Amino acid sequence: MFDAHPPTGSHVPLAERLRPSHLCDVIGQAHLLGEGMPLRAAFEAGLPHSMILWGPPGVGKTTLARVLANSCDLKFISISAVLGGVKDIRDAVEIAQFEMQTHNKPSLIFVDEVHRFNKSQQDAFLPHVESGLFVFIGATTENPSFEVNNALLSRARVYVLKSLNPQELQELSHRALETVNRQFSPEALDLLIQWADGDARRFLNALESVANTTRGPAGTKTEPVSEALAAKTLGQSIRRFDKGGDTFYDQISALHKSVRGSDPDAALYWLCRMLEAGADPLYLGRRLVRMASEDIGLADPRALQICLDAVAAFERLGAPEGELALAQATVYLACAAKSNAVYTAYKAAKALIAQRGTDPVPDHLRNAPTRLMKEIGLGKTYRYAHDEPDGYAAGERYFPEEVGEPVFYQPVERGLEIKIAEKLRWLADKDKASKKRSQ
Predict the structure, then answer these.
(1) Can you spell out the DSSP letters for 119-177?
(2) Which domains does the chain have, with CATH numbers?
(3) 3-state secondary structure of 308
(4) Among 26, 299, 302, 424, which lies 20 to 30 A Cα-Cα from 191?
């Protein structure tokens, strides 16, 4: 399932016909392609490198890969991880080997939806990336931190692509209208832009569909497509976005902030609005789980379990029955006691690790499964907390010596964290008493 050249011909969808072949024709991604930006520098220097392009559908991942191949004069080989397998990888490698033997230069292998490949399939690329046989570009809509092997990630730079904004889609419409030879009213174009929600392919496919559906008989004068006519042609799916053009992630943000602000009515409104608009309920469920940890945490640990149960209920029941479980979880989150103490502590711990790097594990905390390791004293002075008074080894240290004793987690005076704070203060008093005794 690979191809070296994009399809051509009048039967090809508009989105494919308008795909740019040069960097100057690419619309969007100014944070990567603007003057002095990292990806533009690679294009202009003619020094391609392996990369992962991470972003939503229709933002130009395939286009950038093709443009890079053109600008660096590399053979472009495309594999679909949805349809392909090990045989396709082998075939692509053979083509790349032939190209290297014939022209003494690498090929560019583009893997669409790379997260669909399993670990062994992703590993198949590693030796060829290492040898310089080809430049590897993977495209994914999923977080590569979770979906792409660490070995492959370490050999590729990750670039985050963004949805096209309304101005960029408006610029794209100028090119599209010249190709479809059909006029649209400004209101109709605005409606299509709202409906596309930053997805260039979705926008172009919709524009082409509306243009072809509303075209009059040959030889007759055709009026510009109106907003009403465009809405009628698009059908019910137009409900996905309102007239104000709110983007999907703006609505997610509104839901999250309504929960954080303890407004169950507003939170329920945004949840229902997105469900009615066709948002993936399981995606919304995952966001609720995130809110339970980020904004509620240990102030009410039940919130996380309620969200997990709601997701499981939807997976079992589906829509519309399962949507009520998501609504129940949303209202609970909004009404629950709030704390971001765990979230703040997590970020502070990550920041310290990033700053310090890898400090050694103290000897008394290290595992000692062999005789030699025991003989050199690993784990020897460790104090088993269950054998200590109150089940607590007062004064024991668990950080590396070089790190000191930073405090990340500071519970708030709300919900269960009131009790947690009392427990931590009690333990701290025992530590102080132990230190006094040892002095």
Answers:
(1) HHHHHTTHHHHHHTSEEEEEEESS-HHHHS-HHHHTTSEEEE--PPPHHHHHHHHHHHH
(2) 2-160 (3.40.50.300), 166-240 (1.10.8.60), 248-335 (1.20.272.10), 353-438 (no CATH)
(3) helix
(4) 26
